[in-house]
Amino acid sequence: MEVTDALQQFATRMGDNTLILGHRVSEWCGHAPVLEEDIALANTALDLIGQTQFWLGLAAEIQDEGKSADDIAFLRDVWDFRNLLLLELPNDDFGRTLMRQFLFDAWQSIHLPRLALSSDPRVAAIAEKASKEVAYHVERSADTVVGLGDGSAESHKRMQAALDYLWPYVGEIFDTDEVDDVLSEAGIVTHPSSLKGEYYALIERVLTKATLSIPEDPFAHKGGRSGFRHTEHLGHILVEMQWLQRAYPGSKW
Amino acid sequence: MSKEWPLWEVFIRGQHGMSHRHVGSLHAADAEMALKNARDVYTRRNEGVSMWVVESSNITASAPSDKGPLYEPSNSKIYRHPTFFDIPDEVGAM
User: Fold this and answer.
1) What pLDDT, in 10s, does the model give residues A172-200?
2) Under an 8 A CB cutoff, do B27 and A147 touch?
3) Which residues of chain B does A148 touch, with a Cβ-Cβ cutoff of 8 Å?
4) Which strand (E) or helix (H) includes residue B53?
5) Residue B39 located in a structural domain
6) Are residues A207 and A145 in contact, defined by beta-carbon separation less than 8 angstroms?
7) Predicted local confidence at residue B1, as pLDDT
8) A241 lies in which domain range?
9) Could you tell me if the ipTM is greater than 0.90?
10) Out of B27, B32, B44, whose CB is closest to A36?
11) Which residues form the domain of B35?
12) Contacts of residue B36 in chain A, CB cutoff 8 Å?
C-alpha cells in the first residue's frame, strides 16, 4: 500500500469519527437535561465538526479529484464511511451519551498529542489544534462520568448499563490494519497498538473513580474502521444529515 | 435536600488589566463544574481570560428598600467627585 493511499484512508477515518460523533452529539441540541449541559454538548459537537472539516479536507486534498470536505461528508453512502462503530450508536440517555463521549475523548486525548509530532506537517497542524479542544472535552466528560457513576443509585445504575452496552465497541479502536502499519513505518502516525496500555490505564482510572466495573468479556465488534460492516444505525444518521444535499444538490446557505 | 443544583454567579475578566465583571449565573453541582459550565455558557465568543464563580447564597446583597438611607445622603456632596482636577493627556484612561 502506498503511503498517500494510506494517509487518505487515515484522514477519512479521523474525519468520519468526528463527523459522526459530532452529528450524534448535536442531536442533543435543545434536548439536554439542563441548559448548561445543552450548551456544553453543542460546543463539543461544533469542535468535532470543526475537526471534521480539517480531516476530510485533507482526505479530499490527497484524493485530488477536485472534491471538498463537504462533498465527502454529504455525498458518500454507508459503505464508504470509516468511523468507529462506537460513534454511530444511538445516544439513548444522557448517561450513555456521556459515557461514549468519555471513551472516545480519552482515546483522542492520547492519540492527538502523538499525531501532533507527525512527520507530515498537515497532520501535525490539525492534531495540534484539535488536541487543545480535546483536552477540555476529556476533562469534562471524565468529570461527568465520575459524577454520575459515583452519584445517586439511579445514575450509577444507568452509567453501569451504558458502560456494559458500549464496552464491546471500545476494542475496535485497536483493530489496526495495513494503513496503520504503513503510516507508522513512515513516521506519520503513532501505531495505535503502542498506545493501548496508556488508553486502558486512563479509562480504568476514571471508571474506578466512578465506582463502575469494567466488563470482563474481551469481545469487540469490528467493521466501522475498515468499512467492512457498519451497524444499522449509520444509515439513519446519513438520511438526516445528507437529505438536503441529496434532494437539492449543491444548495448553499 | 433540594434536587436542584445550587446557583452560581459568574464573573469574567475580558482582558488583562480589566476587572472581573458579573456576566450572569448558572446551575452546577460544585465549584469545578460551575467553572466548566461558565466556560461553556459565557466564553463561547472569546470573551475571557479569567473566570470567577461564587455560589449565589454566599453573596450578601443590600435591600432595594434601603436605597434612600444608603445612597441619597451622597447626592448632595458633589465635592466628593474629583472633577476639579485637570488630568494630563499623558495619563490616558483612568
Assistant:
1) 999 999 999 999 999 999 999 999 999 99
2) no
3) none
4) strand B50-55
5) yes
6) yes
7) 47
8) 3-247
9) no
10) B27
11) 1-59
12) 40, 139-140, 143
